[in-house]
TrEMBL record:
Its EC number is 3.5.1.19. The lineage of its organism: Bacteria, Bacillati, Actinomycetota, Actinomycetes, Propionibacteriales. Belongs to the isochorismatase family. It is an enzyme of class 3 (hydrolase). Coiled coil: none annotated. This is nicotinamidase. Gene3D superfamilies: Isochorismatase-like. Signal peptide: none annotated.
Length: 184
């Protein structure tokens, strides 16, 4: 098995002080940076929410289920990776959501237009460890899509942060049904 680390949406707007802050986001950024520095993974990629005009994904009166405050707008500080993460740490970055909501990193494309699944296969990857923000939204969707695409998927839950930490049981159930495992 060749396992890649997939770091989902660890961006300023999803961390403390951001427009759609998730408690624990900054700690995820620090802990993921330490994991990358440990050299455990030969292949490390990032996904980024990358909005231009995503329609009803943004709302002045968000329901925090299908609509959200403005976040991760292209060209803003909020869209950038949360320090100490930075683009140079990643073998490739996949951008998603320019003109519509996109929760899964598998909806993203690299700057050269390659989708995440194709890129991973081209690099001989057959398993992914998924971490990032938010556990119950973009990490959830990325893990499920990864399993659908035929990758062995593990979620590093201690390296995630959730919008609703008390509501994760149904998410864990969905992952289990899809064959997604949780790291120790
Ligand atoms: Zn978004």
């Amino acid at each position: 098995m060749t396992t890649a680390l997939v770091v989902v949406d660890v961006q300023n707007d999803f961390c403390e002080g951001g427009s759609l802050a998730v408690v624990g986001g900054t700690k995820v950024a620090e802990d993921v940076a330490a994991l990358i520095a440990s050299g455990t993974y030969d292949t490390v990629v990032a996904t980024r929410d990358h909005h231009i005009d995503p329609g009803t994904h943004f709302s002045e009166t968000p329901d925090f289920v299908d609509s959200w405050p403005r976040h991760c707008v292209v060209g803003t500080e909020g869209e950038k990776l949360r320090a100490p993460l930075e683009p140079g740490l990643f073998d490739e970055t996949f951008f998603k959501g320019e003109y519509e909501a996109a929760y899964s990193g598998f909806e993203g494309s690299s700057a050269s237009g390659t989708g995440l699944a194709d890129w991973l296969r081209q690099h001989g990857v057959d398993a992914i460890d998924v971490c990032g923000i938010a556990t119950d939204h973009c990490v959830r969707a990325t893990a499920l899509d990864g399993a659908r695409e035929g990758f062995a998927v593990r979620v590093l839950e201690s390296l995630t942060a959730a919008v609703s930490p008390d509501g994760l049981e149904p998410v864990r159930h969905e992952w289990a049904q899809a064959g997604v495992t949780l790291a120790e």
